[in-house]
Amino acid sequence: MSTKGWSVARVRELWSLYWTRGAAGRQTPAELVSIMYGWWFVALVLKLLGGSWDISWHFWTIRDNLAPPHDLNTVGTGIAVALVLFHTYTGYGADRTTLRWMQWGTGLFLVAIPIDVVNHTVNGLDITTWSPSHSLLFIGTAGMLIGVALGWHRNAARGRWFAPGLIVLLTLVFEDFWFPNEQQEYGVLEIASWDANPGHPYANQELLQFASDQIHQPVGRAGIVHFSLPMPDWVYPVWGLGVCVLLFALGRQIVGRRWTATAMAGLYVGFRSALWLVLTATTFPPSAVPFFLLGAGVAVDLMFLLPLSRWLRPVVGAVAVTAVSYALLYGQSVLLAAPPRADWAAPVSAAVLAVVWLAATALAPRLTAAKAEPAPSLRA
Fold first, then answer.
1. Under a CB-based contact definition with an 8 Å cutoff, are residues 264 and 297 in contact?
2. Which residues contact 7 (CB under 8 A, 6 or more apart)?
3. How far apart are CA 158 and CA 174, in angstroms?
4. Which of 180, 138, 183 is nearest to 340 (CA)?
5. C-alpha angle 202-205-206 in degrees, rounded to nearest 5
6. How far is CA 258 from the centre of its chain?
7. How confident is the model over 120-137, as a mean pLDDT?
8. Predicted confidence (pLDDT) per residue in 143-164, tens digit
9. Cβ neighbours of residue 156 under 8 Å, at least 6 residues apart?
10. CB 187 within 8 A of CB 60
């Protein structure tokens, strides 16, 4: 059965061949793995673009219903839901653990949507990424992404696209974890836009009035600061370095190739840089790009090149990564732009990273275990 060409007849042929009931972990033909995970990449890219546009959108206006970023995200979510249903019914492309991550993650995301709508209806516009209802969306997406990454690792053929695909998926997991920090990255430039042109920042008049009404003051800089940087200064580095950078170390452990962490950091920073260019060109609010993460990725990779034991590496690595990242973050704040940080929180960031890195070192073998046996393509 040829895998070339797509037509109505071809789709019907694939449907009749693969739409059969089966248990999770069912042996999956290679061509079906390619089709399913190809569509997963499409779904996740749409969700990435929609979510990235959405945060910029909300630093420009409070208009929310049927906003184009939400529509783009919804299309990606619809594809994801269809894929989870296919995995669940047929048992193809996902073992039991993988499927549970996909199901619970997607389910939590769908449950969080009406909760978020109710929150907005009762409390007004929620203009921070750190709110409880938004956190449910991030957590659900994280579960979905972890499931897809596990599925790819356990089912994709060990060919030339295996490692790049896994690195991309792990970078998407990192992006989801990092996403709440973008509140501060967009916020610092929102404030700068007011300082550069008082009365005419990136935010439109409707959003300015809403933000000022929340603190019962006339439209002014205080309202901009209130919605742009609502979190304490320690949150950005502790969450970013203490938790998110763990994904670089975990990625290096799972993929097992040199400079994996650097590649993940480069992919993410490259995406954010391209997004900055697009947003700036289209007059949407841009953000500060976390260039310092490149140093964090390199530092993680260097830790794996040193002759350290698997249990000593997280401790030494946490201190080194935190030191390098704080130094680069300071340099970026002087030369370009970066969110405010609490320097006293550096030891806290290092301690949190050491703990979660040690935990990941213990759990990584379980994540990479139970790889499904490759199945040959079915050809007529």
1. yes
2. none
3. 23
4. 183
5. 115
6. 22
7. 72
8. 999 999 999 999 988 888 999 9
9. 33, 37, 162, 165, 166
10. no
- Three-state DSSP class for 167? helix
Q: Which two tokens stand for residue 126?
A: 């929620």
Rounded Cα–Cα distance for residues 64 and 181 (Å): 21
Helix (H, G, I), strand (E, B) or coil at 6: coil
What is the spatial distance between Cα 37 and Cα 156, in angstroms, rounded to a whole number?
Answer: 9
The C-alpha atoms of residue 69 and residue 56 are separated, in whole angstroms, by 9
pLDDT surpassing 50 at residue 23: yes
Distances (CA, A) of 156 to 163, 164, 171, 371: 10, 11, 17, 10
In this model, does residue 306 exceed pLDDT 70?
yes
What local confidence, expressed as pLDDT, does residue 373 receive?
43
Higher pLDDT, 215 or 295: 295
- Helix, strand, coil shares of the chain, percent, nearest 5, are 70, 0, 25
Task: Say which residue the tokens 């009406």 belong to.
Answer: 114
- CA distance linking residue 119 with residue 114, whole number of Å: 8
Length of the chain: 380
Q: Compute CA distances 65 → 114, 123, 124, whole Å.
A: 13, 16, 13
Residue 107 CA to residue 202 CA, distance in Å, equals 35
